[in-house]
Amino acid sequence: MTTLIDGNEVAAEIRDGLADGIESLKAEGTTPGLATVLMSDDPASETYVSMKQRDCEEVGINGIHVELDADAPAEELYDTIDDLNADPEVHGILVQMPVPDHVDKRRVLRAIDPVKDVDGFHPENVGRMVAGHARYKPCTPHGIQKLLEAYDVETEGAEAVVVGRSDIVGKPMTNLLIQKAPFGNATTTVCHSRTKDLAGHLADADIVVAAAGVPELVTGDMLKEGATVVDVGINRVDAATEKGYELVGDVEFESAEEVAGKITPVPGGVGPMTRAMLLYNTVKAAGLQTDVPVDLP
Ligand code: NAD
């Protein structure tokens, strides 16, 4: 029997688990605040940001939203970040990526005060995570670790394959899986666009994290019987639906489900966890900035 990993359910538990921390902060006069900054006309980015704002509202985090014209000078974005860094009501800052080409993305990541960097992408936070004392774990891989925990997936000594080496998913996921820490200790292989034999690596994998952005790249015949399969991909493919497209993952669900022991669906798997972990990091950030002890789920 294949177990469906329910990201909506685990995400709801995390969100519920943040309530105590938010209450402790409010009792000390602090409402956790998350600023989202959007400098893009991309409808998908607009949707992501509005979902993040709605999530904040639902759990009692103060959502602050700043929107800049996509063709505004880059300085406007850097100045906005400076203002948010200085604002004591803002504990977390998230600049929605991608930013326009005329903006220096690396400068943006470095401009955010590391203590407010709830995405965990500032070089200081990346370094801390790699060194094994993370301040903020990046939301998607952290959410995946929480899913592995919730579904009792044994990572210690397991063979794990991460498909994808991006800075936001593949690399930090790999790093968390190899840490000498709970839900780490896996023997981890990273596959990417130059990997010669993806199927050969997947054949031995007890845990697969697919984050390539390639629709249905991983199929059931590549997987080991009983593997845990975590599908990060969110790909729009043309379909005869009202919207003209449907969302599919990087895993071909129908064939993978036949072989996997545990598997995440798309949607309803990793996506809700990414959102929940942003709230988690924001509450943690508010605690760090106010010295109020907060219990985190
Ligand atoms: P990315 O494009 O930055 O990176 C993709 C990685 O996949 C690259 O490192 C590349 O080397 C590798 N790759 C590409 N083709 C490959 C192939 N044929 N075989 C093996 N590796 C291959 O993407 P990303 O930002 O890491 O996102 C990956 C996917 O996850 C996208 O579909 C994205 O929309 C989705 N995503 C989902 C969430 C979520 O919360 N569910 C969060 C972030 C990203």
UniProtKB/TrEMBL annotation:
InterPro entries: Aminoacid_DH-like_N_sf (IPR046346), NAD(P)-bd_dom_sf (IPR036291), THF_DH/CycHdrlase (IPR000672), THF_DH/CycHdrlase_cat_dom (IPR020630), THF_DH/CycHdrlase_NAD-bd_dom (IPR020631). It catalyses: (6R)-5,10-methylene-5,6,7,8-tetrahydrofolate + NADP(+) = (6R)-5,10-methenyltetrahydrofolate + NADPH; (6R)-5,10-methenyltetrahydrofolate + H2O = (6R)-10-formyltetrahydrofolate + H(+). Residues 138-287 form the Tetrahydrofolate dehydrogenase/cyclohydrolase NAD(P)-binding domain. SUPFAM superfamilies: Aminoacid dehydrogenase-like, N-terminal domain, NAD(P)-binding Rossmann-fold domains. Gene3D superfamilies: Leucine Dehydrogenase, chain A, domain 1, NAD(P)-binding Rossmann-like Domain. PANTHER family: C-1-TETRAHYDROFOLATE SYNTHASE, CYTOPLASMIC, C-1-TETRAHYDROFOLATE SYNTHASE, CYTOPLASMIC-RELATED. This is Bifunctional protein FolD. It comes from Halogranum amylolyticum.
